[in-house]
Amino acid sequence: MTGTQNLKLNTEHLKLRIKLFMNNNGEQYDSKKYLDMDLLRFTTAGSVDDGKSTLIGRLLYDSKSIFEDQLEAIEKTSRSSGEEEVNLALLTDGLKAEREQKITIDVAYRYFATPKRKFIIADTPGHIQYTRNMVTGASTAELAIVLIDATKGVLTQSKRHAFISSLLQIPHLVVAVNKMDLVDYSEDRFNEIVQDFRTFAKKLEIDNITYIPISALVGDNVVDKNGKTSWYKGPTLLHHLENVKVDASHNVVDFRFPVQYVIRPNQNFRGFSGRIESGRIRPGDEITVLPSKLSSKVKEIVTRDGNLDEAFPGDSVVLTIEDEIDISRGDMIVRKNNVPKVTSNFEAYLCWMNEEEMQPGKQYMLMHTTSTTAVYVDDVIYRMNVDTLRREDAETLKLNEIGRVKLTTAKPLFMDAYQVNQRTGSFIVIDAASNVTVGAGMIRATSTESRESETADVKRETGSTHKLESKTKHSPNVVWEPWNIPKEDREKRNGHKAQVLWFTGISGAGKSTIAKALEKKLWGSGKQTILLDGDQVRHGLNGDLGFSPEDRTENIRRVGEMARLFFEHGNIVLCTFVSPYQRDRDAVRKLFPEARFVEIHVTCNPETAHQRDPKGLYEKAKKGEIKDLTGFDGEYQAPEHAELVINTDEMDVDEAVETIINKFAAD
User: Fold this and answer.
1) What is the pLDDT of residues 163-193, one digit of tens each?
2) 342-446 has which fold?
3) Cα dihedral angle (429, 434, 436, 440), rounded to 10 degrees?
4) How many other C-beta atoms can be found within 10 angstroms of the C-beta atom of residue 127?
5) What's the pLDDT tens digit per position in 407-419?
6) Domain ranges of the chain
C-alpha cells in the first residue's frame, strides 16, 4: 500500500469517527464520554437464510461503521457473484466456505457504536449442525435477536434458538420479522407470526420480548422508519438496541472473586489477582476464603492506576487482606455471610459440542471459574427436544444435543445456580486426551442423588423406618419445574433479600411474641413478610400429625418445605416452632443458601416458662394430661449453631426485635 493510500484510509477513518461522534446539533462527543458509554452485547439467530448476516451488515452500513475499503471489497465480491445489489452479508461472512455457500458457519463478532451506546454483535449460524456455535455466541449476550422470514413464518430452528436464549437466561429477546418487503409489508402477516411466536414463548422463561417488522435488505425499520409500515407504532431496531436497559441481569449482590494468581513481588506485599464475577467489595468488608472457610477483612483494592474505594462486577483487581491466609489459584473469596454452594454433586443443563457422543462414567475435565478438576457424568436425567420442548429419555448426548445431567467432580466447586449467577453457574467440559472442549453447562441445582443421601443420613440418625423415608422423597414420575418468576426478580421489586428467620425454643420462652412484634415492625417498613406459627400449621396442613418423634420430624420437614416456597417468592419468612431436634433444624437449614437461614434460639429459665404457661400446656402436663411435653418431661436439644441467642429473662420484646433487625433484617 502506498503512502497516498495510507493517507486516504487514515483520513477516511478520521472522517468516519468524527461523523460517528457528532450529535444532531453537530456537537462533538469527547473521548471520556465515549469510554463511559454503555456496552450492549447481543446475538443474532434464526433459521437458515432468514437474513441474520444481512441485518448486521445493514446495521454497520447505516450506522456509518464500515470503512471505504471494506465497502469496495464487498461491492467487488457482489459483482463477481452476479448479484445486482451489494451483499451486506459479506461484512460478517468472513470464511471462504461461508462466502461460497452464502451461509454462516462460524460465530462472527463485530463491533460498532452510535453516539448513545457501544455494541458487540455475535452473528451465529442458523443450521442445526451448528447449534454449538450458537450457544457459544449467545453465552455472553444480554439481548438476542431471533429473525423470522416473513414468507416462511415461525420455523423449528427459530424455536430452537429462542429456547437456547431462554436456557442461557438472556433477559431481552427481539423477534425481528424480516423480509417484510416480500409480503407487501402486510400487517396481517406480521400479526399472524407474532401470535404464533407468542404461543410458543409461553413455554419459555423470557418476559421481555419485542416484535419489530423489518426488511434488512432495503433497511426498513432497521435504523430508520419508512411509510410502508405506517401501521407499526413501535421503535426501529437500532432505537430499541440503543435504549434497552442493560446490566439488569448482572448480579451485584453476591460477591464472588475466583483467585487467578497470587502476586508476591516482595516480602512486603501479598495480593490476590482476579476478576470480580459478581457483587461489589470495599476495603474493610469481611470476607471468607473457600475452601478453607477462614475469614478476614479486605485491606486494599489495588489496580495499575491506583487503589479503589469500591470495585464492581467485571473489574480486574488485586485484593490484599488483613490476615495471613494460605490462598492459591482456584480458591474463591466471598463475603463472610454470603457464600456459594460448596459441593461435588450437582445437576446441570449440558450442551454437547463434540462429534463423539458423551460417555457417562468416562473421566473428563471440567473448568469452572479459575478451577479445573476431573468430572464424571453419572446419569442423563433427560434429553431436551428443543423443537417441541418435550423431555425425552436418553442414555447419552450426541453433537448439539442438550440434556439435564448429574455430575460428580473430583474436588468440591464453589457454585451458584446459573439463573442466580451466570458467572459461577457455568462451566465447560474438556476431553482430557485431546484437550478439546466437548461441552458447555449451566448449573441448575445440587444433585437429587445428594439430597437423597442426606435423607438416608437422617434416617440412620433417627432410627426411623419406612415412614420417614417415604415422606422425604419426592413423588414418583415428577420432574422439578423452575420457578415462574425468579426469586432475584422478586427481591428487586421488594427492595430487600428473601430470608428465613427460624425461632426455636421451649413453649413459653417467647418465640411467637417476639416474632409477631418483629413482623409488624418489618411490615411497617415496607418489607414483604410471612409468619408461620406452629399452632396455625397444626390446625391445617399438619393436622394429621401427632407428637411422636417421627411426627415431630415430619412436622418440621413439611414446614421447612413450605418456608422454602415463601422464600423463593421473595419473602422474609418468620417461623416459630419448638423444633426440639437438632437434626430436624439442620435438615431445614440445608434447604436454603447459607447466609439466608438464621436460627434464633429464644430461651429463658424453665421456671419462667412454666410460670408464663401462655397456652396452659405445663399445667396439663403436671396433671398428666400431656406426656412428653418439650420443656417439661420431653427432650429439647438446644441449637449447636444458632446465629443468635435471645434470653427473655434478660431482654424485653422491643430490645429483641431491634437486635434481630440490626443484625439480620436490615437489608
Assistant:
1) 888 888 888 899 999 999 999 999 999 999 9
2) Elongation Factor Tu (Ef-tu); domain 3 (2.40.30)
3) -20
4) 16
5) 999 999 999 988 7
6) 37-243, 256-335, 342-446, 492-665
